[in-house]
Each structure stands twice: as structure tokens, then as C-alpha cells.
Amino acid sequence: MKILAIDTSTTHSSCSVMEDDYVVGDFSISQSMSHNEILINMIDEMLLKLNMSINDIDLFVAVTGPGSFTGIRIGVTTIKALAFATNKPIVSVNTIEALCFGVFSSLKKVGIVDARSRRVYYGIYQGYENKEIKKPSLFTIDELLEYLKNQNEQFVLVGDCLNLYKDEISVCKNLIPASASFNSCISRNALVIGKKKFKCNMLDDFFTLSPVYVRQSQAQRDFNERNKNC
Q1: Greatest CA span in the chain, whole angstroms?
Q2: Nearest Cα to 188, choosing from 41, 35, 21?
């Protein structure tokens, strides 16, 4: 079974392929170009190097957020289009779940994704089985660190903005930052989660699959503000 997963929920564009239980291809890059400019080329290049075509893929995995609003839309739309064109099944995976999945620890794991203006999307997962403890939510980094600091236990932190807030995190003695190698492996982890969901028949419909935003986009909030008295 060949599975393709893509992730565009953070500043990284990434795509990965798993054949049976082996990750055979992985392409990840963070740069100034938009996901829309590079994603299809990344997928084409990776499949070419693997001597595969898109028709060889048996299952598509969409990382649906939370994260960058524009990035998520691009990634989800691309996966839906590929699944529709090839008439292959599709499953969705949460960004925070995929982040935490790669950290093998008996401790609770806190996945954080930058939401700008000192805000982060976060979720809490437990141990090796990656059991969801706290579904993805939105906090300021100060609110999140204050909450975690007051808990009588240790947590492992993983995510794309650990460096951004490393000074604040360093003073919280019960927080353990994950290695940098775990902070951008979302599509690789999504492959494994997606295969498990497929085996449990947890499929999504590519007509109705939509991004997970947690909050409204800035454009939607501006629109609502302009029209609140209409």
C-alpha cells in the first residue's frame, strides 16, 4: 500500500510517501515562497525520484490544521483534487496530533503551532499511544506557559515556534523542549496516523473535507465587524 501525505499548516511545505510500513520519500522545505508556488513541484519531484506516478498512490492523507489559514486551504485543496482525480480514498489528520505523535515519551506532550501576535495553537496528548488530553485550542504563549507552569508534572513541548519563545520556555522548569528534528516532521507522522485511520475505516469525503481553523480567519472577523449592525 502506497500512501501520500502533505502538510502546509506551518511555514514548512512537506510531502511524504510510505510504502507498506516504510517511509520511502520525504520532501520538506521552509522558505519565502508560498505553499502554492512550490507544493505541486515538490510532489512531482518526489514521485519522479521514487519512480512512481500519482496513480500509484492508494491513500491520500490531508493535514487539516490548525495552523496557517492560507497554507491549510492550499494543502487540503491539493489533496482533495488528487484524491478525486485518481478516485482514491482520503483521510484527515490534525496538525497537533501529528506533531505530538513523533515524540516517544511517557510524559504528556504539548504540540504548539505559531498563530502570530504571541498566540499559539496547542493541544495536549498523552504518552506513547498519543491519547488526546486537550483538543486543539488557541492561547497566547503567556497564557499557555502560565497554565503549564502551574501543573504539578512535566511536559514535553514540540512545534515550529519553540525557538521563537525559547527564552520564555526556558524559565519553566517543568517543560522539556523536544529536539529540533521533531518540530517539522508532520507529514511523516501523518502517514502512520492516516494508515491507522484507514484500517479503522475512518475515511473522509473529499467533497466535504474542510480545514480545521479553531478560530475565524482575520478576513472573516473583519467582515463580521463591518456587518455586525446590518
Answers
A1: 58
A2: 21
CA 192 – CA 112 distance, rounded (Å): 20
Interatomic CA distance for residues 4 and 214, integer angstroms: 25
- Quickly count: other Cβ atoms within 10 Å of residue 46's Cβ: 18
Category of 90 on φ-ψ map: left (φ > 0), alpha (ψ -120 to 50) or beta: beta
Task: Give the pLDDT confidence of 145-195 residue by residue, as tens digits.
Answer: 999 999 999 999 999 889 999 999 999 999 999 988 887 789 999 999 999
pTM of the entire predicted model: 0.88
Q: What is the dihedral of CA 80, 216, 98, 96, to 10 degrees?
A: 180
- Return the bridge partners of 56, or none: none
- What length does the chain have? 230
Q: Which residues touch 215 (CB under 8 Å, ≥6 apart)?
A: 115, 138
127: left (phi over 0), alpha (psi -120 to 50) or beta: left
Helix (H, G, I), strand (E, B) or coil at 183: coil
Confidence band for 19, pLDDT divided at 50, 70 and 90: very high
DSSP β-bridge partners for residue 122: 112, 137
d(CA 41, CA 96): 26
Cell of 50: 521514487
